[in-house]
Design goal:
This is MoaD/ThiS family protein. The protein is an alpha+beta fold. It has 1 helix and 7 strands; from the N terminus they run E-E-E-H-E-E-E-E. The protein has a 5-stranded mixed β-sheet with strand order 2-1-7-4-5, covered by helices on one side.
Length: 85
C-alpha cells in the first residue's frame, strides 16, 4: 500500500527546495513511524531541528495521537505548529 504524506506548510530545505509530499510503501504504518520518517528526512536537510511535539498530525480531519494506525485511503496531514518567542 502506498502512502502519500502531505506537509503543511511545506518545509524549505537548505538547497532551497520545499518538501510538500513524502511517498512510502508499507502494509501498515502508525503516526509515530510517519513522524520519525518525515523528521529524519527534514532534519537532515534543514537548518532547523524539528521535534515530534512541534507537529500536529491530522487523519481524515481529526487530530490523532502517536499510536494511531493509518488505514487504507486515509488522508494524513502533518502541520507545523506555530513557534515563536
Amino acid at each position: 500500500m502506498k502512502f502519500f504524506l502531505e506537509l503543511y506548510p511545506p518545509l524549505k530545505l537548505k538547497n532551497g527546495e520545499k518538501t510538500r509530499c513524502v511517498e512510502v510503501d508499507y502494509k501498515e504504518i502508525n503516526v509515530d513511524w510517519i513522524l520519525r520518517e518525515v523528521l529524519d528526512e527534514v532534519n537532515s536537510n534543514n537548518k532547523f531541528e524539528y521535534r515530534p511535539e512541534d507537529l500536529l498530525v491530522i487523519i481524515n480531519d481529526r487530530v490523532v495521537g502517536m499510536d494511531c494506525i493509518v488505514g487504507n485511503r486515509q488522508a494524513v496531514k502533518i502541520m507545523l505548529l506555530a513557534m515563536g518567542g
